[in-house]
Structure formats: structure tokens, C-alpha cells
Amino acid sequence: MQNQIGAPKQKLSFSDPKVRAWLFQIITIVAVISLGWYLFDNTQTNLQHRGITSGFDFLERSAGFGIAQHLIDYTESDSYARVFVIGLLNTLLVTVIGVVLATLLGFIIGVARLSPNWMINKLATVYVEVFRNIPPLLQILFWYFAVFLTMPGPRNSHNFGDTFFVSSRGLNMPAALAADGFWPFMVSMVVAIVAIVLMARWANKRFEATGVPFHKFWVGLALLVVIPALCALIFGAPLRWEMPRLQGFNFVDGWVLIPELLALTLALTVYTAAFIAEIVRSGIMSVSHGQTEAARSLGLRPGPTLRKVIIPQALRVIIPPLTSQYLNLAKNSSLAAGIGYPEMVSLFAGTVLNQTGQAIEVIAITMSVYLAISISISLLMNWYNKRIALIER
Amino acid sequence: MKVLKSTLAIVTAAAVLGVSGFAQAGATLDAVQKKGFVQCGVSDGLPGFSVPDATGKILGIDADVCRAVAAAIFGDATKVKFSQLNAKERFTALQSGEIDILSRNTTMTSSRDAGMGLKFPGFITYYDGVGFLVNNKLGVKSAKELDGATICIQAGTTTELNVSDYFRANNLKYTPITFDTSDESAKSLESGRCDVLTSDKSQLYAQRSKLASPKDYVVLPETISKEPLGPVVRNGDDEWLAIVRWVGYAMLNAEEAGITSKNVEEQAKSTKNPDVARLLGADGEYGKDLKVKKDWVVQIVKQVGNYGEVFERNLGKNTPLEIDRGLNALWTNGGIQYAPPVR
Lengths: 393, 343
Description:
The structure holds two protein chains of two kinds. By secondary structure, chain A is of the alpha+beta class. Chain A contains twelve helices and eight strands. In chain A, strand 2 (164-167) and strand 3 (170-173) form a beta hairpin. Chain B is of the alpha/beta class. Chain B folds into two domains: 2-127 and 228-333, Periplasmic binding protein-like II (D-Maltodextrin-Binding Protein, domain 2); 130-225, 3-Layer(aba) Sandwich (D-Maltodextrin-Binding Protein, domain 2). The termini of chain B are far apart.
């Protein structure tokens, strides 16, 4: 400290931009922290004063209500913490299925919009314009109330070969249960995948050395079918099927996709795919036509031109906005509360909040969940984006 | 948009709780007198309890409880503003101070009375219980035959818990489908998504009256739980709690004493019965103790009616609901509505 007093006066002067910059940063940090502390402290005091229980003890209490769809075992005597996990899994289920289907559908529609075929081209345009311009909640309500709930009841369901049944209770299908040959079958699958990887490596090496192509796809498919099939012949079928059957009010046994899940997934897929289609189209159009011409003049047919030349370059343009669409889909899944699909918002921020009355804790947890899901998607997509980025030599 | 709205309401309420000041005894009455009206939380549309008519006026027994409170405080039953809330929004709205009274067919339970920052004054607007509404086609005669049924329930209600208890106790299986609003539940029953709609019995009658063909549906005889429905106030304001409690009791006492909206003014002037004189403010200062108008009961009965009048007007034989007084008859008539005396 002593030698600072002797230091030139200017160093601590307000006119020094460095000092000013530091000062303002410190003021900002102090302001943010004290505002946060004020909110926290005031909330605590108010909660205590009004006799509202706070804290997270409620998570261990037993929930006592039923849930329509749970991916893990659940009974009414299980805890609110387990209800939370069920809500989270239901949200993730919709998100994952939605992302996969929307990407597939979006790519198909996007490529179709660039098709030289007038019919395909116009159909894709109509699809995009219709579905991206209707709010997602309306689409969800439409699929749920106007499509799935107008199906006949379980006793007059649409019957597809006594195996699949479509009714207002959803899609009932046979359940796959593990049979004697299950574990040998799984082992054979692993063997098949290893064999395919080895085969692909060998084929790539040979291609680079000699330039002779190898039918990687067909041989790979053959390996994938033949090895597990042999295994199933030796050890018996890996799965047995449990057929849905009508008993009392409803179908019992088998698996069921509830209409809430179907409506939500379908609506989100169809909605998001319209945006993805436009992203894909813009990505493809960003690759200059010279690339196509160059590929064609090298003798590549249209299919390989698209797969090996256009798409890899287009992906660099496609991935960042695609990430945003995935995030939107994950967040839009919370609209399911409108049709009673038991996901995070409807189950946890709805029923649990109301049964416990602990709004602040429940909303904080729910918000953190969406933050965590979104950040995970972002990180994953950024990593992928970096991997496919143009490597300049 | 309902979903968005309710989420927004909850988040705002949580935020308000973060920045608002302390609740103090007497604070609610002061605030109400300052702003000049009672802010009352009612349901999002339940015939007989609180439902908007063609002009947007909220009708029903729950709405009338709030009107009676306004009549006692201001001498004017119209000084009420209503907030329509779904089951999920109701408690946060009260906790955060958005409303002064929650009069929204809410079941009194111990966990709601303690630990949630709420208090039930103890006046029960309507003694109810959970029942089942099913389609005639199913041919079900008793709730015990509902094994494997799919059941529509309104989210965030005690019904969710009581149904689960009943099916567990009777070793029956069921699939619950929960909706935010009672309209969505009713639509799902009509479309066949569920076999059964379950709710408080009074609500089932109300729901049935709204269906396209009410005659095709029947309410099963079982009542599987106790659902005493009553108004709720914030914890920590005993003065306000006492006002709401005694406004309710005053309506019951008025019915018991035979005071109706037609004869109340005459009774107030000429009664010889000391009990009636005390109730109507001709004798004593019971209104002043409660910090309401001296002639509070006269105003309540004149402008809103006694309990029996309110019940008959909203739920009784001449309404589409056609509900019997049953448990809600006065104790003198074989019911369990019993009010402590005003003295």
C-alpha cells in the first residue's frame, strides 16, 4: 500500500479509462448480487411470514395420484421425486422422437422443394406454407381433438390384422417381451456390428490403395441380417409377442401409444419439419451450382452428387439454424399441458405444484430442466458443427 | 393459450411473492376499503357455482359468497371484481395477493389449511363428495365395476388423490387422463377418450347439463370422499378471516331465523326476537367488532339473500342442476349446515 501512495496520481484518477472500466464492472456486479440477495431474502421472509412451507423436502413425500403414461414403474405411493423423473422422461421421449422424425421429414420436404418435378415441388411448397404458418398449439389441439379423439371407441376400433388397433384410446400393438434367445441375439448383434465396422475399414483402405469400390452397404446389410438370423435359428426366437386383447372397458396386454403422445409428436414433427425443410433448402441453395456441374462432369450420377458433394457442404449452413429448431421443439413440447399429456409442465409444474403448493421450488426446478435440456442440445449440435466444419488446408 | 396464461400467472405470482411486502393482520381489509372492491377468485366456468351469463355477470353460489362479503363491508353487493381461475392457478393467485378471497369450489383439507400460506375460515359453502359420471351405454351400475376404466380428471384437484385412493383400496386398475379445464374433460368424455368423468358430484351434475345429450349419461350412486367446499383466505390476517367466516355464518343464521330478502327490512325495524335483533344490528355492535357495517346482515340478506335463497337460486329444484339440499340443509332440517350464533 505504501508505495501506491507514492505512485503517480493519474493512476487512480477517474479520467483513466481503465479505472473507470473496472469501477463500472464492480458496480454492476455488486448491483446484480445485491438485487439477487434482496429477492431471495425477501421471498424467504414472505414465505415464512405467510406460513408457506419452503425447501425441497416435499420431493420425498408420496404423490398419491395416478399417471397415464410412465416409462418407469410407478405406483401412487411413490414419491414426488419419481413423478419428476417420469415427467422428465415423458418430455425427453417427445423431444427425441420429434427431433428424429422432424429431421427426416424436413430433409425430404426440403429436397422436394428443389425438385425439378412440378408436382412434387408445389406439394412441398404448400406443405411448408401451411404448417409453418399455423401456431403449434392449434396444431396440437387439431390432431388431438379433431383426429385422434374422433376415432371409434375401443370396442369398434380399426383392426389391422388382429395385431394393431387404432381407437380413441390410441394405438394398441403387440408388446415385445424377451424370450429364451434374447441374450444370444444381443450378443450376435454386437458381433454383426463389429464385423461391419471391420469390413468398412478394410473396404476404405482398399479403395484408397487401389481405387476399386466395394459394395459396403449391401455386404453390411447382409452381415446384419445373416448373423443374428443364424443365432435365432440356433438359440430360438429372441422375442415373443404379447397381443393386445379387449377386456372390459379397454385393451389389456400389449403396448399402447396414448393419443396424447401421438397427437403431440405428430403436431410437433409436422410443424418443425416445415421450418427444417426451409433450412435444408437454403443450405442446398447456398452451395454454388458450379459444384454440381463439376461433379457431373466428373461422371457422378445425381444421387451421389447430392450425397457426396452437395449435402456435406450444405450441412455447414444447415446445422446452426437446425439447432435452434431442435431447441424450439424441445420447448414446444410443454404445450402438451393443453391435451393432458403428462410431461414436465403438465405433470410437475401442474399437478405437483398444486398438490404441494410450493410454487417457487417447483417452477425453479422446471425452468432448470428446460435450461438443461436446451443447453445439452446446443452443446451436442455445436460439437457436431465443429466436426463437419470446413477444414481449410 | 390457456396453458400459456396459467404458466404466466404462476410465474408472475412467484415473482410477486418475491418482491411484495409483509402480510399483516388487517392489511387485507384496509387494502380492500382503499381500492373500493373485493377481488374474488372464482372458477373458470362451473354452472351453479360460478359461471358467466350472457352479459358477463358471474352467477353462482361461490360468486354470491363474495357478493355477501362486499355487502357486509361496503353495503353494496356489486363492489366485487372476479378473477376466473383454473384449479392449477387458484392457490398461487391467493398466495401472491392477486385476489382477496378464493371462493372456487375448493375442498378444505389439513395440508391446504397449514403449510401453504392459506386459511379456511371454516364456513362450508357446499358439502360435496367425489362421484362418477358414465355413459349409459357402458351399462355400469356401480363404481365397483369400473376396473380397467380410463378416467378423466381435472388436474391439480383433491379428486386426483381421492380417485387413486378409492381404486387402490378396492384393488381396481384405472388410467387417469388429466386436463386443465373442466370443459376439456367433458369434451374427452363425449368423444370416448375416457369411460368415466370424475369430480365432485355437484360438478358432475353441472357438467352433465352442458353435454350435448345429458340423458345418455348417468351419475353413479357412490360418493367416495368428503369434499367440503368453502372460501379460502391468506394466512396471517385473522381480521379478514373472521369477516369471511361470519358473513357465511350470517347467511346460515338468517335462514334459520326465517329472515329472507323480502322480509329483512321489516324484521330489522319491528322484531321482538332478541336473537334476530342482534343478528340484524338492532341490538349490540356485533358488526363494529368485525369492522363491517352495523347493519351488515341486513345488507347481505337484502342484496344477496340468506343461504337457502342463494342455494335455491343457483343449485336448487328450479335450476337445470336440480340438486337436493341433502347434507346442505340446515341442521334443523336434517342437514349438517350449522352456524354458531352471532352475539
